[in-house]
Amino acid sequence: MVLVDFGLAGNRLLDSLPRQERAHLLTGCEAVDLVFGEVLAEPGGRISHVYFPLNSFISQIANLSDGDRLEVAMVGSEGMFGMPLILGVEESPLHALVQGAGPALRIPAAVFGRHLARSPALQTLLKRYFYVLMHQLSRMAVCTHFHQVEARLARWLLMTQDRAHSDQLHLTHEFLAMMLGVRRAGITLAAKALQKRRLIRYHRGDITVLDRAGLIEASCGCYASDRRIYRQVIIEGEAP
C-alpha cells in the first residue's frame, strides 16, 4: 500500500472533512493511478473499492438492453465513486469507466464501511454529497430531454475540463455521441457551431477550450446550477 499524506488530499470532498477525520480516513487509503478505459464496476457487480479521484475522472454510464449507452454522472476531484455503499448497498447500478487517466485515492469497501460507521462527520458530509448527486441526476434528465445539443455539448465540455484540470481534451465524435445520447451527426454540427464561435478548437478528437467564459454562456443553465449547489452544500456547508 502506498502511503498517503495526511494533509490536504487534493480531493475537494475529502478536504471538506475536519483535519482529524480526514487523516483517519486516509490511513485506509492507497494512492493509485487510474488507467484510461479501466472498468471500475459493472452494472449489478459488487463495488470492491471506493475511489476519490485527484487528477482523474470516472464516467458512470447507464447501459440499455438494446446496446445504447448514456453517461448519467461524472466524478472527478470534487467527489467519490462508491456512493451506494453509504446506503448499505454493495452493488453498482451503473457501468463505471475511467475517462480521465491519473491519480486517485482508493480504499476497500469494507474498510470504508468501518470508517463510515465510526465517523459522524463523514456521514454528514456524504449525506450532503448524496443530495448534490440527486440534484445533478435530476438536472441531467431534464437537460437530456429539453436542451439543444450545442448547449449540452458546451456543458459536458465544461464538466470535463473541470475534472481534467486542463484546456486540452481528447474526445472523439463517437465517444461524445455515446455520452450525450445523440447521433454522431448531431455532435459534428454542435462542435462546428462552437468552433465557429471560437469557443473551442477541434481537430481529430483533440479539443482545446479557447474561451471558457464564452463556453459557459453557450451552455445551458444546468452547468451553473450544478456548481452553485455543490458550492452551497459542500464547500459552504449551508442547508440546501
UniProtKB/TrEMBL annotation:
<dbReference type="InterPro" id="IPR018490">
    <property type="entry name" value="cNMP-bd_dom_sf"/>
</dbReference>
<dbReference type="InterPro" id="IPR000595">
    <property type="entry name" value="cNMP-bd_dom"/>
</dbReference>
<keyword id="KW-0805">Transcription regulation</keyword>
<keyword id="KW-0238">DNA-binding</keyword>
<dbReference type="InterPro" id="IPR050397">
    <property type="entry name" value="Env_Response_Regulators"/>
</dbReference>
<feature type="domain" description="Cyclic nucleotide-binding">
    <location>
        <begin position="13"/>
        <end position="98"/>
    </location>
</feature>
<protein>
    <submittedName>
        <fullName>Crp/Fnr family transcriptional regulator</fullName>
    </submittedName>
</protein>
<dbReference type="InterPro" id="IPR012318">
    <property type="entry name" value="HTH_CRP"/>
</dbReference>
<dbReference type="InterPro" id="IPR036388">
    <property type="entry name" value="WH-like_DNA-bd_sf"/>
</dbReference>
<dbReference type="InterPro" id="IPR014710">
    <property type="entry name" value="RmlC-like_jellyroll"/>
</dbReference>
<dbReference type="Pfam" id="PF13545">
    <property type="entry name" value="HTH_Crp_2"/>
</dbReference>
<feature type="domain" description="HTH crp-type">
    <location>
        <begin position="147"/>
        <end position="213"/>
    </location>
</feature>
<dbReference type="InterPro" id="IPR036390">
    <property type="entry name" value="WH_DNA-bd_sf"/>
</dbReference>
<keyword id="KW-0804">Transcription</keyword>
